Amino acid sequence: MEEQYLYPAESPTRQVIDLSGIWKFKVDHNSEGKEKDWQNGLADYCEVPVPSSFNDLFTDKDIREHVGDVWYQTEFYLAEEWENKNINLRFGSATHRAEVWLNGEKIAEHEGGYMPFGAIINEAANFGAKNTLVVVVNNELDLTTIPTGQIKEYDDGKRRLFPYFDFFNYAGIHSAVKLQILPKEYIYDITTVTDFKGDTGFVDYEIESSSHSEIKVELKDIEGKVVAQNSGAEGKLEVKNVNLWQPGEGYLYNLEVSLLSAGELIDNYRLPVGIRTVEVKGNRFLINGEPFYFKGFGKHQDSEINGRGFDPAVMIRDAELLDWIGANSVRTSHYPYDEEFYRMCDRRGVVVIDETPAVGLFDMNLNFLAAGTGKESDFFDKEIVHEQTIKNHKREIKRLMQRDKNHASVVMWCLANEPDSAQERAEEYFEEIFSYARSHDPQERPLTFTNIMTAPYGKCNVAQFADVISLNRYYGWYIIGGSELEYAQKDFEEELVGWEKEGKPIVMTEYGADTKAGIHKLPSVQWSEEYQKEYLELQHQVFDNCDSIVGEQMWNFADFQTVEGILRVNGNKKGAFTRDRQPKMAAHLLKERWENLPNNFKG
Ligand code: BDP
């Protein structure tokens, strides 16, 4: 049951077959699938596309809100001559857990909804004949899972899931499922760390492979010219006249790793590498030694119909809008996104704060909105959190760093979103989490978490561990909003005076106001497009007055789906863009501002 974290890329020695398409599908309403041997094949079924969330495809509420197992099946053939290759079956992600059978034999099991998993399937596979692949995906959450949630059971046996977070608990096979036809001896993993001095760039590399044969490493520039080379499983490459990876200019070299035996090529892998440095110095965030100002959004991987399923069309549309609006960065709130997203950000020079799925570390009494009320939560007082939740949290940090460590675009890790950091025992929990994370990133990038309004300056027990203070603040929306808006500035600025004393950079990782596109009102009222604009203008004034604020990521890039509730109108409407990716008035305001703020603003 090996996990292949290296992106499944083709090369002269590797072939990749994408199993995306229409699969068979069955909802296990009575949790009877395993007893009835569905793992051997589904007798009756309907159809779903893979990848996608299943929730918004059907017209039946009991499917949309289903809690438990759903089953998938597809068939494929393997050529006979591949019998002496390693066939790796790789899921980009399945939310939140999955078990996999090939021809009736169990080949993989995985928990954690956003990371790749799979297996070498040679033993269970049929070569030159049909293979039946069956997958059961489960979407249940509890206090110990990452993310967290709670299931409520009703008298008639039905169950509903209440996530401790503000986005719909979409589930299914969310990323592409691929077959990698790998050589017998092959490259498992590559780790790179980059640096530069003057106009010379450096790439430290380390290669893990199944063979001890000769390893050759070449670094090629964008034209394919070899600019540095070396041999052996680890070493350093030196690049004269280096082209640095910069925000907005994602220059990528190709690290071409070859396994050779007696001069013959056994395996070859090409890893895109951007040469850049990241560092926190005083209250500044430096990329390539230059102060960097984050302009952009907290996002969601969310769209109509597809839900959380990866959709390359939506990804490209979003990238074009980021470009149009003058944004330079994104936070992958509140979970890691599809690998294609990071590869695109590497190419386009989009700066990424990469977030773990640790959201909802707050006891919210069946409703995440309770968190904003300041109501007592006893999340970190529960022993199970310190015994089990923390283990799962670490597992997700390790996997995320393993998967995304080589992306030049990733400049910081966000270890959790809005944990109840005002609680005393949050301190011991996060001391362990931060020190664990520090030992797992080969590039030693800065670490952060986002702080919630109910743990303001002086009340937060976790900020001490972070390199960057990330604040989610809603002065003018959840508090001091509406007709009081003009008074929000004072309270906001007072809190910031406190945070500035920490001497660390501050990034505003969330600020926003729900806005229903098309509501216009003069003078403004909450939910109107005019109000969103006025709200943002006020926030921006606050940011400009605070020297330590080195970034603003408005909440949210686009409207997105959430659980139902009286505070949500078919989802969260804080988007600068609508869910179908058209601009609200506020988008034009952001464009005007961000096009005029240089990347080294406040430098
Ligand atoms: C913050 C959360 C985010 C919510 C947002 C909101 O981090 O997930 O969507 O507030 O209320 O609490 O819009």
Automatic annotation (TrEMBL):
EC number of this enzyme: 3.2.1.31
Enzyme class at the top of the EC tree: hydrolase
One Pfam family of this chain: Glyco_hydro_2_C
Span of domain Glycoside hydrolase family 2 immunoglobulin-like beta-sandwich: 186-276
Glycosyl hydrolases family 2 sugar binding domain span: 18-183
Record has Hydrolase as a keyword: yes
GO biological process per UniProt: carbohydrate metabolic process; glucuronoside catabolic process
Glycoside hydrolase family 2 catalytic domain mapped to chain residues: 278-597
InterPro entries the UniProt entry points to: Beta-gal/glucu_dom_sf, Galactose-bd-like_sf, GH, Glyco_hydro_2, Glyco_hydro_2_cat, Glyco_hydro_2_CS, Glyco_hydro_2_N, Ig-like_fold
Organism superkingdom: Bacteria
GO molecular function per UniProt: beta-glucuronidase activity; carbohydrate binding
Family: Belongs to the glycosyl hydrolase 2 family.
Protein name: Beta-glucuronidase
Organism: Halanaerobium polyolivorans
